[in-house]
Amino acid sequence: MSLHIFPDITPRTKEKLMEEKAMRRLHADPPLPDDVDEHGNLPELKCGWKKCGKVFKSRDALMAHVRKCIPHPFVGRFHINCKNVLENDPEITLDEFLQRVMDCYEAEDAEHIERKELVTYYNQFQPLFKNHHFHEKHSDHINESAKEMAEILFNFRIESQKHLAAQNMIPDQFIIS
């Protein structure tokens, strides 16, 4: 929008319009949020574009920011639907991915989804989910926090059984020593 067409707007209004234009430009490149974790999750109450990075007090405030800043009509659950399709089948082809995601939407919402965005999402996240899926399938070891939790629970069970046995609440044959 060229502001010189409206010579009678106030400096404050002009400043506000320039800020909104800059925010839309900032959220257009990259076309999708790029601040995601290793599992493809967006930040909780923070804008998903690293260049922006604004933090919000509520999900509603975050969503209002996204609706205002993205340079195209907002389509609800875009990231979630794309993620669900890819996470469930990371080996999916691009054409299958496009079809399955579009099947998640009514016609009036689907018309606001550009093919370019879906291709970008697929190219950005498919390798991530494929790699994560591979490691899940081929991981025989338990991570350290899960080991620690299992050990704590096991020790708690043993101590509980000893305590109950001391009170003659359970028979000796059920005690693991």
Q: Say how many strands there are.
A: 0
Structural class: mainly alpha
- Gyration radius, rounded: 26 Å
The main sheet comes to: none
Average of per-residue pLDDT values: 81
Low-confidence stretches: none
Q: End-to-end distance, in Å?
A: 77 Å
Listing every helix as H and every strand as E from the N terminus to the C terminus, the arrangement reads HHHHHHH
- Helical residues, percent: 40-55%
Strand content: under 5%
Structure write-up:
The N and C termini lie far apart (77 Å). The protein is built from 7 helices and no strands. With 177 residues, it is an all-alpha fold.
Question: Concise description?
Answer:
With 177 residues, the chain is mainly α. Helix content is 55%, strand content 0%.
SSE inventory with pairings:
Blueprint: H1 11-26, H2 59-69, H3 78-88, H4 94-102, H5 107-110, H6 115-137, H7 144-166
Quick tags:
177 residues, mainly alpha
